[in-house]
Amino acid sequence: MNLQLAIHSSPRFATWIWLPDWRLLIDAGDGATQHLGYKIRKIDTVALTHAHRDHIGGLLQVINQRGEAGSFAVAHPCGGRSFGMLEAFSNKFNPGSSWRAVWHALEEGDELPGGASGSGERLLKAFRTRHYLDDEPQHAPRSLGYHLLWRTAKVRAEYRELPQAELDAMRAQVGREGITEMVDEKWVTVGGDGAPLKPQDAAGARLLLHEATFLSDADRDSGDEGGPPEDEERERNAAVQSPPRGAANHEANQSASHGHVHSTVEEALRVAREAEVENVVLYHVSTRYTDAHIRDATDEDARRLTAAAAMTAARPKTMSRKATPLFNPRRAALQTMKRTRLQVTAMSIRRSRKRCAWRARRRSRTWCCITFRRATPTRKSATRHVKPRAA
How far apart are the first and last CA of the chain? Predict the structure, then answer.
C-alpha cells in the first residue's frame, strides 16, 4: 500500500494534514477546503488533535462540504469542551449537511475504524499528548496524538519457517484462521502540538510527524507560536503560575500567559533517534524563521545527534518549487532500498496562483506533498523519483 500525505502548517494561522490512502484529515486549519477542493469529499475521518484555532479554523467549512457526500466521522479529545460547542453550532449553522458528521469523543487508547482496504483494515488509535501545562494525567485528555495502524492477518511465528507445502496442508485442515493471527502495523504516528513524545509512543512507526515549533531552546522565551488559548480555557490558563526562569525542565521556559507546551527541533530528533524511526517529518515550525534558518539548524542538530532518520520539514513560508529532504544520512540506502521498506519518492511545493484585475500575481501559502511507498527492489521503476502531478 502506498502512503501519501500533504501538509500545510503555519503556527497561529493554519495546520492540517491530508492522508488520502487513509481517507483521513488530521486537524482542519483555515484554508484546508481551498487547497484540497473536491478531495474533501473523499474524507472518511477528521481527527482533531486539540482545540486551538489554527487547528480547527476551517472545520465548519470541511463539515459543510464533506456532509454533502454522506456520513463521516469527526474524532476529538474528550477533555476539550470546545468541541461540544462546535458540534451544536455546526448543526444549527448548516443543518442540511452538518448532521451527517458523527462526532466521537476519544479517550487515550480508543480506536476508530478507518475502513477495509485490500487484505487489511485501517485503524486510527489515539494516544495522550501534553500541550497544556495544566493538563494532568488524572483528567480527561485535552490533546491527543494519533497512530495510523494497518491491521492484517499474518502467519503465526511458530509456522513461519515451514515450507509452503506444509502451510497449504495445515490451512486445508484448520482453515486460514488456524495458522494466522491479526497484527497491527504502525505506519504513521502524528504527535500534534505539545511536549516531545515518549519514545515508546513513536517506536515502530514507519513515519513520524513531530512538531518542532522552535529551532532552539532559547527561542522559547520570545513567545509561544501556538496561538492564543480558547475562550473556555482562559480562566484555567490564567491560574497557571509563571515557572522560574532557568529551570532544568523544558516546560519552565514555556509561555506562562498562554500555558502551552511546544517542542524544539533537537527534542523531536531525540525522540526519533530513541524510537529508531527511519522517516521523520518536522512540522508546526514557527513562522519567525526563514527557510535557510530551518535548514541550517536542522542539519546542525541532526549531525550533532548522529541522527539516522531521513528528515523533511513542512516549512511555514514560501519555498522554491524544487525541494529536497533536509538531512538524509542514508541517501545511498534509500536509492538502493536495501535498508528501508519505505522510500521518499516525491516531494514538491504546490502554489495556488490567480490573476487579479491588474494582472498581478498573488501567491497563497505553500503546502508540501510527500509520497512514501513500499520498497520493491525487483522493479526498476521503484528506484526512480516520480514527479508529482501538477497542482
Answer: 23
Instruction: Tell me if 62 is assigned to some domain.
Output: no
C-alpha cell at 227: 496561538
The predicted model scores a pTM of: 0.74
Positive/negative CA dihedral, 146, 17, 83, 42: negative
pLDDT tens column, 339-351: 223 333 333 333 3
Which residue has cell 491560574? 239
User: Which of 143, 229, 151 lies closest to 186 in space, CA to CA?
Assistant: 151
Total domains in the chain come to 1
Residue 21: pLDDT band with limits 50, 70, 90: confident
Rounded to the nearest 5°, which phi and psi values hold at 176? -65, -35
CA distance 314 to 187: 19
Whether 228 is covered by a domain: the verdict is yes
Contact 154, 166 (CB under 8 A): no
Q: Are 343 and 373 in contact (CB under 8 A)?
A: yes
pLDDT digits (tens, 9 = 90+) for 359-376: 333 333 344 555 554 444
CATH of the domain at 221: 3.60.15
Q: How far is CA 353 from the centre of its chain?
A: 26
Rounded Cα distance between 229 and 210, Å, is: 21
Asked if residue 376 belongs to a domain, the reply is yes
240 belongs to a structural domain? yes
CA–CA gap between residue 390 and residue 155 (Å, rounded): 41
User: 195 lies in which domain range?
Assistant: 117-383
